[in-house]
């Protein structure tokens, strides 16, 4: 069953066209990977799907049959779109627990906020699942966190919000081998617990796919998807580079 359908998507920033008639379809529960070099339009795709106001998007993009481009960023979040940032921001003075609870309540009816007891139970369950120490809940969001810890906080938010579509924008960026493995293991655990969740993973390198098995790999060059295939396509990229796809 199709969850996300992108047809003839064109995205520009200040009159510079970055994505050019891009087409992509993701099924419910699918893990899709977008690979491409710097400047190919990967992060532009992520930000335009989330509704970043700097990106002017034209075309047809639907999520569960609903017109995504007609929604503001907060509306897209409520409809089930989640974006994990390449460089997560630090928010001194706001604890991890309070930040996530606020995010959950923003997506709920104002008259029906999540009960504290329900929230604490859910938070503890997901922190245990992702092997995150309980004391992190009381720390300020990303304040003094390592690169790996910041990325795990993104995955924790993902686990708590349970979106339909999780967009992970270069989650492997800046991670050492051990941190990368831990983050990928967290993603796999989350996917196992939420089989209907669809993932769109954006990355430069094949190394993340040593730990996560994708259903679909897409090569993005110069604003267009030039090739699609299975995991073997990522191995071909690793061996031949991007020049063979130009």
Q: What would you give as the CATH superfamily?
A: P-loop containing nucleotide triphosphate hydrolases
Total domain modules: 1
Distance between the termini: 31 Å
Total number of helices: 7
User: Could you say what the CATH architecture is?
Assistant: 3-Layer(aba) Sandwich
Can you describe this structure?
By secondary structure, this protein is α/β, with parallel strands linked by helices. Helix content is 34%, strand content 30%. The chain is built from seven helices and twelve strands. β11 and β12 form a beta hairpin. The model has no long low-confidence stretch (mean pLDDT 93).
What is the fold's blueprint, element by element?
Layout lengths: L1 E12 L2 E12 L3 E5 L6 H9 L5 E8 L2 E2 L5 H7 L1 E4 L6 E5 H11 L9 H14 L10 E2 L5 H15 L3 E5 L7 H17 L4 E6 L12 E6 L2 E6 L1 H10 L6
Parallel strand pairs: 3-10, 3-11, 6-9, 9-10
Antiparallel strand pairs: 1-2, 1-4, 4-5, 7-8, 11-12
Helix pairs in contact: 3-5, 5-6
What's this entry about, in short?
With 246 residues, the chain is an alpha/beta fold. The chain has helices spanning 42-50, 73-79, 96-106, 116-129, 147-161, 177-193, 231-240; strands at residues 2-13, 16-27, 31-35, 56-63, 66-67, 81-84, 91-95, 140-141, 165-169, 198-203, 216-221, 224-229.
Characteristic key phrases:
246 residues, alpha/beta, Rossmann fold, six-stranded mixed sheet, four-stranded antiparallel sheet, globular
